[in-house]
Write a structure and sequence with these properties.
By secondary structure, this protein is an alpha+beta fold. The protein has three helices and five strands. The C terminus is likely disordered.
């Protein structure tokens, strides 16, 4: 009886160790599985975030390239010295060009006006209308100006009879306008080129 009972105790102890060892191994396997699952989920999330970051990075690069292209296009349209010279300088240079281009036209100007976002010079052009095609070309030229641009407010054609001769004249009223550059001193636009205020 004692032999059987001591053998039973030994067997019971062995089984207890196996059960405990099995439980520990099972717990380790389960916890390892849980950790592996969390790691895999974290890995997928990291991979998704990295892919999203790459997409956003490509979008930013494309936007930067588009912005640089637009900037280059705008710079190509602007006259040299746009951000360093006074708007009044550009207006006066173009006024000289207008006087030489319009020939015998009488060009009247008033004072240069310094407005919030632009500088403008009111201009009136009067001339005999000898050739309608030349007149249309002159109006087209004024409308094609960019920096400064010519804003036409009115165009009048009038006829007068002098000693039996019909004479036609035209009058174009408008303003040479130039936008202020961001780098300029807003008070500098009213200064005369090369001089002080």
């Amino acid at each position: 009886m004692t032999t059987h009972s001591s053998e039973a105790r030994k067997t019971l102890r062995k089984l207890s160790y196996y059960y405990i060892l099995s439980g520990v191994l099972f717990a380790l396997i389960v916890s390892g599985g849980i950790i592996a699952k969390k790691y895999a989920k974290s890995l997928y999330e990291t991979s998704d975030k990295l892919q999203e970051f790459n997409i956003q990075y490509i979008k930013i690069i494309n936007a930067t390239v588009d912005s640089e292209r637009a900037s280059q296009t705008i710079k190509a349209l602007l006259p040299p010295g746009f951000d360093t010279r006074l708007p009044a300088e550009f207006i006066l240079i173009l006024l000289d060009d207008l006087k030489s281009r319009m020939g015998d036209a009488n060009i009247t100007i008033t004072k240069i006006e310094d407005r919030k976002d632009e500088v403008q010079l009111p201009v009136t052009i009067k001339s005999p209308l000898k050739d309608y095609t030349a007149f249309v070309n002159q109006v087209g030229y004024l409308q094609s100006l960019r920096f400064p641009f010519f804003a036409i407010s009115s165009v009048k054609i009038s006829k007068t009879i002098d000693k039996g001769t019909v004479q036609a004249t035209f009058e174009i009223t408008g303003a040479l306008k130039y936008p202020k550059a961001g780098l300029q001193d807003p008070g500098a636009a009213g200064k005369k080129p090369g001089g002080s205020s």
